[in-house]
Design brief:
Radius of gyration: 13 Å
Order of helices and strands: HEHEHEEH
Strand content: 5-15%
Distance between the termini: 36 Å
Number of helices: 4
Structural class: alpha/beta
Oligomer: single chain
Shape: globular
Helix content: 40-55%
Largest sheet: 4 strands, mixed
């Protein structure tokens, strides 16, 4: 079951609980240097980035080419944690962008 991650900003206790649970599951850092977040998961992405002190890049969700749609400092070669509420077209485009960036480093 998918959560309504875009609504979490209205429920700070639920946002804190979910953020704490995510940190317990993925750790506070180590395997990734950046986070990339889809528009529908932005409140959760911001909370997780703040709690782990990890830079966050997010999608504006305008349907543009991913390179033009991203907000934040995004460099090639950084292991990145993808935060998404869905597995739709936007998420696939962002994942492809990450894969392409990682493949360019090899």
């Amino acid at each position: 079951m998918l959560s309504k991650l875009d609504m979490l900003a209205s429920y700070p206790d639920a946002l804190r609980t979910l953020t704490d649970a995510a940190i317990a599951r993925i750790g506070s850092s180590g395997r990734y240097d950046r986070m990339l977040c889809t528009t529908d998961a932005l409140p959760f992405g911001v909370a997780l980035a703040l709690a782990t002190n990890t830079p966050l890049v997010y999608s504006r969700g305008r349907g543009e080419v991913p390179a033009d749609d991203l907000v934040g400092a995004c460099d090639i070669g950084h292991p990145t944690l993808l935060i998404a509420n869905t597995s739709g077209k936007e998420t696939l485009q962002l994942a492809c962008l990450l894969y392409t960036s990682d493949a360019a480093d090899e």
